[in-house]
């Protein structure tokens, strides 16, 4: 009897080991690249984490091996998206995810990749004139509209705002400005100030505009990007003296809300961009499933004193 039980246990153990081995069998392998705009930008670090999480979870779900190549260039060290695309070709990737930084420069590389049969998913914004598998796009017009609605709540009656944007505008900034103007109306805009898209240029432009405002007509500010928030507070006004709203924010903005220099942030779902793009690619590569719509528009959200703590916790998770 003891022998029978032991034999039965041995058989069961062998069967269990066999089944366990089958469960761990890799059914397919896929290599995917992700190319943001600058690896030093926290926004793309959050996107990378979303993509890495999706790759890990989908690998376990489908018993596949998803290798994610993070090829976002380091701009400070001279990196660029064209070089990253060349690395993808060397790695023989099955597909890639990209936020096109310079459409005219990157277009030939993207078209060549398409000719080689690689699946492509855009995120943040797309490259016009191409047909990707999908595009996960930011609703920049709505971001601008939300910023306008937020600043109106803080302005005095008939108060007017100054708007900070880049000297070299792009599609995203143009859409944000359109949405902002639709919310504010012509009468609530005092001036549109331009600067180079960096911290020092932004601070200099803001100070020059404030010094030139002899009649004290500027009662608030809207930053169409967060360049003024990428260093220590250096505004020419005291905390809680002028309302300010910024679009497209990274963790550097928390000190500005904590010290009451900025009232509201309008942010995009950076982590979700990474997760959704990888999920879309794997659905096509492994399941032969194409998205119901080739364009998915993600919703921006408003962050202020009511939900800043939960947003702060999200960044802690994204940047662990």
Question: What does it look like?
Answer:
The structure is a single chain. It is built from 10 helices and 12 strands. With 320 residues, it is α/β, with parallel strands linked by helices. It has 2 domains: 29-138 and 269-299, Response regulator (Rossmann fold, 3-Layer(aba) Sandwich); 140-267, Rossmann fold (3-Layer(aba) Sandwich), CATH 3.40.50.2300. It has a 6-stranded parallel beta sheet with strand order 2-1-3-4-5-11, with helices on both faces. Strands 7-6-8-9-10-12 form a 6-stranded mixed beta sheet, sandwiched between helices. The longest helix is centred in the first third of the chain and has 22 residues, at 2-23. It is elongated. Residues 1-22 have low confidence and may be disordered.
Order of neighbouring strands in the sheet with most strands:
2-1-3-4-5-11
Share of helical residues = 40-55%
* Element pattern in H and E: HEHEHEHEEHEHEHEEHEHEEH
Overall structural domain count? 2
Broad shape: elongated
CATH class of the largest domain: Alpha Beta
Radius of gyration: 24 Å
Question: Topology, please?
Answer:
Elements: H1 2-23, E1 29-35, H2 42-62, E2 65-70, H3 81-91, E3 95-98, H4 103-115, E4 119-124, E5 134-138, H5 140-154, E6 160-166, H6 171-184, E7 189-195, H7 199-212, E8 218-223, E9 244-247, H8 254-258, E10 264-267, H9 270-287, E11 295-298, E12 301-303, H10 308-318
Parallel strand pairs: 1-2, 1-3, 3-4, 4-5, 5-11, 6-7, 6-8, 8-9, 9-10
Antiparallel strand pairs: 10-12
């Amino acid at each position: 009897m003891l022998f029978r039980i032991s034999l039965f246990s041995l058989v069961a153990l062998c069967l269990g080991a066999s089944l366990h081995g089958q469960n761990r069998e890799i059914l397919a392998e896929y290599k995917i690249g992700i190319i943001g705009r600058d690896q030093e930008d926290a926004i793309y670090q959050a996107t990378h984490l979303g993509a890495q999480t999706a790759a890990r979870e989908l690998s376990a779900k489908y018993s596949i091996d998803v290798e994610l190549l993070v090829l976002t260039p380091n701009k400070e060290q001279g990196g660029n998206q064209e070089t990253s695309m060349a690395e993808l070709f060397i790695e023989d990737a099955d597909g890639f995810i990209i936020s096109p930084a310079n459409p005219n420069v990157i277009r030939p590389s993207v078209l060549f990749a398409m000719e080689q049969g690689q699946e492509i998913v855009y995120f943040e914004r797309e490259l016009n004139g191409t047909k990707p598998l999908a595009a996960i796009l930011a609703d920049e017009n709505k971001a601008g509209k939300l910023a306008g609605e937020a600043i109106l709540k803080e302005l005095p009656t008939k108060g007017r705002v100054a708007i900070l944007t880049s000297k070299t505008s792009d599609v995203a900034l143009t859409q944000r400005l359109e949405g902002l103007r639709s919310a504010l109306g012509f009468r609530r805009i005092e001036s549109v100030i331009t600067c180079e898209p960096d911290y020092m240029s932004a601070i200099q432009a803001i100070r020059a505009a404030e010094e030139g405002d002899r009649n004290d007509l500027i009662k608030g500010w809207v930053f169409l990007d967060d360049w003024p928030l990428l260093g220590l507070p250096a505004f020419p006004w005291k905390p809680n003296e002028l309302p300010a709203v910024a679009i497209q924010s990274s963790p550097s903005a928390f000190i500005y809300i904590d010290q009451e220099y900025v009232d509201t942030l309008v942010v995009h779902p950076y982590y979700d961009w990474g997760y959704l793009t990888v999920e879309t690619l794997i659905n096509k590569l492994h399941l032969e499933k194409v998205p119901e719509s080739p364009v998915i528009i993600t919703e921006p959200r408003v962050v202020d004193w009511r939900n800043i703590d939960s947003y702060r916790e999200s960044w802690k998770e994204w940047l662990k």
